[in-house]
Specification:
Chain lengths: 564, 170
């Protein structure tokens, strides 16, 4: 296998290096073909630091790397991705260990048809019943391997049909996923609607999963029962998108047939999901209101997998994704078994040359989000809710459950004070149910307040200094944090960073750690190299102009990214 | 490890080989802010230069970059006929907040949604912000990742050189 991979890579590279020469020598052959690609490498040397929870890593030095190569010629394109996890960085699932060609496809577009064989990513509607995607920084990839056909017979009509198996690290899941989606843009289709102010898009999709029967048992009253499992599980969704001048309304409803799995504790209840968003926006003002209800909507191509693998659908969290380090200590993720969520956001640009707007104007953003449990009732006095082998529970579609999972209210002000000085100031107040979200039974709800100041001073038009000051206060969990960062930038090539996250309020005195970090990097066009040393807490870190997810660790880290 | 090293060298070599070739835009499906599915082959600026910027609501440097360009966009458009196309890679979690945010900020860019990263992958975008500069024939002639204060001027210098027909490397 190893040798085959090496030969395969060798051949491909040989071809790719020879291609331009060939193209010039033999005009016509492969003429007009284009090759492009990208490369990403993250390597880390680990120093054990038991105090912060960075244990000794036997390999001492780990690396994640991948490279994509894409060849396109007119209507044809093909691509491969080589991935190497030798061994995977700490924080990634150990099942990533390995290297080889993990993704390859060929695609042909002609006329109304678009055909892909091999691997592909796809999403139907907002993803409530189907989404195949990758997020290498999070170690997530549920790529499909199979066939996809898109057919677009007229402007305003899009059909997609697909069938395949899903990626599970270096293997594939046991289930087969097949489905179809149709989307209609009525203003293109209905005569006389072209110039209507009201724009209407309708869509519908169907997905079915096949997984052979297997033996899954549970015990009730000291007797062992075996489940009668559905081999085919169907799901459908319908969506609507209305637009009228500054107003818009989008919604999607999804239904999933009974699908007992380890995630839903082997219940036969059907799943439902609803996402609704309304918005109003004109230049200088944007208002959004969203609501969602998720009820037993975990949908995987394996009955027994837990965790973030083999998901057929995608259930987005309806909360703001924070990117400042202390604000992202307590991030929320959707509870697939049941959740009621609300979100509202207002963005307003206070005009220039007004009392509050100042000379350069001021941007204001207020965001509120809430996620609660759904209301659940016992199906009969005989069984508790979620009892395996039953229909699980009954639930009023419009009722909020009493358990709060998450609440966030945040205000952000962006202000430019002068030509050389500007800043972003935020306040975040959140409730975080650490028991449910992180699975720490019995721990109290975390109530936290975070203040952030992000200020940039420009010395010359290419040299600038950026400073972040952040403070998080909470009585619960790890207590108070303070953070300071200085970043010196020489645009467009160099950056230097020094930062410290200090958990000074940790109730355990021995755990009041400093998380220092020193980093520098160099950018040239789409090539970037950075080196950092220090201790990292888990979270989304934004440094030197980019954001990525970093696991907890201590040591020296090297990142190289290139794209051509 | 050695294989990776060879791979890296090969990619750098390819980078040099192909750097000047001027790849054109790939043809994939993306969505307008109205939700309509369109092909990236419809993105054009009638013979004038274009900047395509990949961004997301959760990416602070992206917002800073687009805010910075927004302040001078009128002048840039007037001087060079430039068009800025902002492609949001926000997924279903936040796609519905893209349009209100763009309007709320008063950005005059042509904005598209790439909720499942189809265009992002076809353009080999590893991290954002990632900007591409295209000439009037829709060929990619320069690209840059990350944003630091002042990078927008360097980008605009390239646009001016392009407009004057000079080589970008001077």
């Amino acid at each position: 296998m190893k040798r085959k991979t090496t030969i395969c890579i060798g051949l491909i590279f040989g071809m790719m290096i020879l291609l331009p020469g060939l193209a010039y020598a033999q005009q016509g052959f492969l003429q007009g073909g284009q090759v492009h690609g990208n490369f990403q490498l993250d390597a880390q040397y680990y120093e054990p630091d038991s105090a912060i929870g960075a244990f000794e890593v036997p390999e001492k030095f780990n690396m994640n790397a991948y490279a994509d190569l894409i060849y396109t010629n007119d209507n044809f394109s093909a691509g491969i991705r080589y991935e190497a996890y030798l061994n995977p960085l700490e924080g990634y699932d150990p099942r990533w260990e390995g290297h080889g060609i993990a993704y390859r496809y060929a695609r042909y577009r002609k006329g109304d048809f678009d055909i892909t064989v091999g691997n592909y990513y796809e999403q139907f509607g907002s993803g409530l019943i189907f989404r195949s995607y990758e997020e290498p920084n999070l170690g997530y990839d549920n790529a499909m391997d199979g066939v996809r056909v898109k057919y677009n017979p007229a402007k305003g009509i899009n059909f997609t049909g697909l069938m395949g198996k899903q990626r599970l690290f270096w293997d594939q899941g046991p289930g087969i996923v097949r489905g179809a989606d149709a989307e209609f843009y009525l203003n293109e289709l209905v005569s006389g609607w072209q110039d209507k102010k009201l724009k209407v898009i309708l869509g519908g999709s169907f997905i079915s999963k096949y997984q052979p029967d297997e033996v899954i048992t549970f015990t009730r009253d000291d007797s062992l029962y075996q489940l009668n499992l559905p081999e085919n599980v169907g799901a459908f969704a319908g969506r609507l998108n209305l637009m009228y001048g500054p107003w818009s309304l989008t919604g999607e409803y999804a239904y999933k047939a009974n699908d007992p799995s380890s995630v839903n504790n082997l219940i036969y209840r059907q799943g439902q999901g609803l996402v609704l968003t309304g918005s109003y926006s004109v230049k200088g003002l944007g208002i959004t209101l969203s609501a969602k209800r998720i009820d037993n909507m975990s949908f995987k191509s394996s009955r027994t997998e837990l965790g973030n693998v083999l998901d057929i659908n995608y259930l987005p969290a309806m909360t703001r994704q924070h990117s400042y380090s202390l604000a992202s200590i307590y991030p929320y993720a959707t509870q697939p078994n049941g959740e009621f969520g609300l979100q509202g956001q207002v963005i307003y640009s206070i005009p220039e040359e007004t009392a509050i707007g100042g000379k350069y104007g001021t941007d204001l953003s207020i965001n509120y989000s809430l996620a609660n449990s759904i209301e659940t009732e016992r199906i009969s006095s005989e069984f508790p809710v979620h009892a395996p082998g039953t229909d699980g529970y009954e639930s009023d579609f419009f009722a909020f459950g009493d358990e709060r999972y998450f609440r966030d209210i945040n205000v952000e002000v962006r202000k430019k004070f002068s030509k050389s000085f500007k800043g972003v100031f935020s306040w975040v107040n959140l409730d975080y149910n650490i028991d449910v979200i992180e699975g720490h039974p019995g721990e109290p709800m975390v109530h936290a307040n975070v203040f952030i100041a992000d200020m940039t001073y420009k010395f010359t038009y290419k040299k600038s200094l950026r400073m972040e000051l952040q403070h998080l206060s909470t009585e619960e969990d790890d207590g108070d944090w303070a953070m300071a960062m200085l970043e010196y930038n020489v645009a467009p090539h160099w950056f230097f960073v020094i930062s410290d996250d200090y958990n000074y309020g940790n109730p355990v005195e021995n755990d009041q750690h400093h998380y220092y970090n020193l980093a520098f990097g160099y950018n040239q066009g789409a090539n970037r190299i950075s080196l950092s040393w220090g201790k990292q807490r888990e979270g989304i870190i934004c440094v030197g102009g980019v954001c990525r997810n970093v696991p907890a660790a201590s040591g020296l880290k090297l990142s190289i990214s290139s794209s051509f | 490890m050695r294989k990776i090293f060879i791979l890296f060298i090969a990619i750098l070599a390819l980078n040099q080989l192909y750097a000047q070739r001027g790849n054109t835009l790939p043809d994939v499906e993306i969505k307008t802010m109205q939700g309509e599915t369109v092909s990236t082959s419809e993105i054009t600026n009638d013979g004038d230069p274009m900047i395509i910027s990949f961004w997301a609501l959760w990416c602070k440097p992206c917002i800073k970059e687009l805010d910075a360009i927004s302040e001078v966009y009128d002048d840039w458009q007037e001087e060079t006929g430039l068009k800025v196309v902002a492609v949001s890679i926000d997924d279903a979690r936040s796609t519905s907040r893209v349009k209100p945010t763009v309007n709320g900020k008063g950005w005059d860019y042509e904005v598209y949604l790439d909720p499942n990263g189809e265009f992002k992958r076809a353009m080999n975008v590893n991290m954002i912000p990632h900007v591409f500069l295209l000439n009037g024939d829709r060929e990619i002639i320069y690209q840059h990742t990350s944003y630091t204060e002042g990078s927008e001027y360097e980008l605009y210098e390239k646009v001016l050189k392009l407009k004057e027909g000079k080589s970008l490397d001077d």
